[in-house]
Amino acid sequence: MEGLPGTPSVHQIGFADLIATLRLLGKFPQKMVLFGVQPQETGWAASLSEPVDAALPALVDAIIDQLQEWMPKPKWRTIPDQALR
Hints:
0% strand
């Protein structure tokens, strides 16, 4: 855990292990975008806190925008009228 930024947590261990494994396997991506929401607290609860719940629509929109940027644009073509009959 030494050398990782912030306070140690199971989330950092998992992410750090993932990054190290990708590097070892030579599969580290050229581009990487990390999305997340910073919680006010990390205790146990049956539902999301109000700030996290309120942040989800913007998070989902940001993820969709990023995916659309990475995905190739569809190529539209004209279908001849006779093919539609």
